[in-house]
Each structure stands twice: as structure tokens, then as C-alpha cells.
């Protein structure tokens, strides 16, 4: 089906073509006509499916159909979980808007950087705001923007928004929006909390789903390699060299490990660099850009990069440390095999992590043979106790951010009692 069959304006089709989109992806085919009709939509979609354009194209068309305000008032709000995703979505919306007869002002706001430039940027209003929830509310409190004219709300990566502890900010934001509006809800996974959020938000939604999660897509080959914990860096080096992967994203559990593993690889002659939340926003942006520009062959990251980051042509993802949950596993491996390309996702399974990986496999309905690589055969034996008996992945421990939020909430409550 061509883009022209979806009901989009010629200017938007022109922009999509200019971005190299020849035909709509399945999610675009399903979502665009429904959104143009004004329906609420709930989409089960991963980054990589083309979901950003699936909401951005009809969003721009509906915006364009409405009467322009002077000064500009925010008519479309896109909430996203991370700064990186905010920047990425903002860029896509701007690119798709470039051939429209009337200019569209897109403001991208996120925390972790100074609020002042964002406040300046919002002077004169904006048509579309792409935001992380905390900074959005800060800006509302500073009277830098108001949300009373929003008639289209997009929640992108709703599961991640909840994972990151944004539930309260979301409810506060929803209370600021007009009742009458169109809601678009995208999530890679639909655990109970996400479903409840969707049910509370959507009216008679059209459901769109792409065939399956990347975990089950044939374009991603999944491998599990049994290896001793102490040999993982050498094995990684061996695999990178043997397969001549042009780009590899390696996931580790901590910022320290990201630094440490990247340094070891670098010293061994592989262009590797760390990426994690301890780096400044500028440094993170630079690493991503340099990765895209082939300056780095390997980026060693915490789960910060597991979602939302769009790096085309990423042939391999390596779980050096296993993810905490099956959901994180899906998001990590979904970084490869994007937009129809093939990719490989390799998990290192140490003896200690064997039971944990079995739980992930169970949740993903997977059963991967444990490969052994000659020269790296494991010598350690799995311990008696299994992850299942010790709590394993089921009970999600609060992240550092969750703890900070809880501490801030407690301090606020204590202040209220004074
Ligand atoms: P997303 O799921 O929105 O992160 O998009 C994943 C990738 O697919 C991005 O690099 C997009 O530029 C690309 N993309 C989106 N729509 C299409 C399309 N119709 N044809 C080809 N590539 C697309």
C-alpha cells in the first residue's frame, strides 16, 4: 500500500518520501487512517516499527487542519520517558513538518539540563511539545507553557514511563488537559499497570499491533553463550573480531562496568566507549552521534540505551550482564534487527546467571541452546539456589531514580506536616 492511500496530505507524503520512506510500515498502515479519523488508538509497538511516524504524520495533518492560533498554543503533546527519545521524536516531527505550507513549531523539553533555554524556546508558544513528564510540569509551574488547548495527546513508550516512576507526573499532567481530546497510546508491553493506565485514558480505542515483539521476529537471531564471568571481556573481544561486527551495543549492569569493559576493549585495540547516565547530556549526545558516524565500533552501556535509541544498522547486541527482567531483555535486543535488517542478540550466561536466564526464556517462550565457544568453555558450576527461589526477576527492585523520588516525596510529606 502506498502512503497516498492513507489519506495524508501531499506535503506530508513529500516529507516522508524525502526521509526515504517508500511505503508505510504495518503500524503506519494500521494507525494512520484511524488517527486521521479522530479515533483514540492503542498501539502495541516497539521502537523500530516506524511508530514515531505512525503518530507524527497524522498528528501534523490534524494540527494543520485546525485553525492556527496567535500566539501559538500547544495543541499536541507527546510524552516520552527519556531525554534521548524526546530529542529523537522531536527531530522526526520537525523533519516531517518541513514541507507543510504553514510552519509548525515543535518544542522539545526534558530534564537534566538547564530549564532557562527551554523557557526561552517556549516564548511565543509552540504547536507541538515533546516532553519528559517531570520537566513538562516544571515548565507549567513556571508559566512557560499551558496545556489547556491540547487536543491530541500521545503517550509514547507508556510502559517505560511507568517503569521510570512517572505515574504521578502523568496523572498530574492529565489533570491539566482538556477532557475533550484524542489520545494515542503506544507501548511495547502491556503489563497490568500499563493496561489500567490505557483503560483510564482511552475511549473506544482502535487497537493496532505489529505482528510481534522483536524477541519473536525472525530477523533477530538470539544466542546464549555459556561462559565464566571472568572470561566475558575476552570472549566479547573474540566475538567482535571474529564476526567483524561493524557496530555493537554491549549491555552491562552498572556504570562502573560500562567504564571498565569499554576501557579493557579499548586497550585491546577495539574502538569502544562507555555510555551511561553518569555522563553529561552533552557527552551522551556526542557518543551517540559518534557511534552513528562510525567513530566507535563498540558502545558499552547500561540500560539507559535499551529503549528508544534509533541506531540504524546495528548488527549486534550483547548482553554482557543479563537484563533484570524479560521486558528489559525485549527492549535491549530490539536495538538490533531494526527496519527489516537482520541482527544478532548474544547473551552471556554465567553459572550464577543461569537460573535467571531460564526465567527470562520462560517469559519470552524461548529456549536457546547454551553454546560454548572453543577456548572459552565454562568451568564454573551453577549454584544450588535458583533465581526463582531467591525472588529472581519477579520482584522488581526500586531503581536509584525510584529511591530518589521516594526520598523526595517523603521529604515533601514531612515538610507538609511541619
Ligand atoms: P521508529 O520505530 O519510529 O523508531 O522508527 C524506526 C526506524 O524506521 C527509523 O529509522 C525510521 O526513520 C524508519 N522508518 C519509519 N517509517 C519508515 C517507512 N515507512 N519506511 C522505511 N523506514 C521507516
TrEMBL record:
Signal peptide: none
GO annotation, cellular component aspect: cytosol
Example GO molecular function: ATP binding
Biased composition, class Low complexity, residue ranges: 406-418
InterPro entries from the UniProt entry: DEAD/DEAH_box_helicase_dom, DEAD/DEAH_RhlB, DEAD_box_RNA_helicase, Helicase_ATP-bd, Helicase_C-like, P-loop_NTPase, RNA-helicase_DEAD-box_CS, RNA_helicase_DEAD_Q_motif
Domain Helicase C-terminal intervals: 231-381
Domain DEAD-box RNA helicase Q: from-to ranges: 1-29
Bias type Basic residues, positions: 394-403
Annotated ranges, domain Helicase ATP-binding: 32-208
Pfam families, alphabetized: DEAD, Helicase_C
Keywords of this entry: ATP-binding, Helicase, Hydrolase, Nucleotide-binding
Motif (Q motif): 1-29
Database matches in PANTHER family: ATP-DEPENDENT RNA HELICASE RHLE, ATP-DEPENDENT RNA HELICASE RHLE-RELATED
Membership in a protein family: Belongs to the DEAD box helicase family.
Protein name: RNA helicase
Gene source species: Acidovorax carolinensis
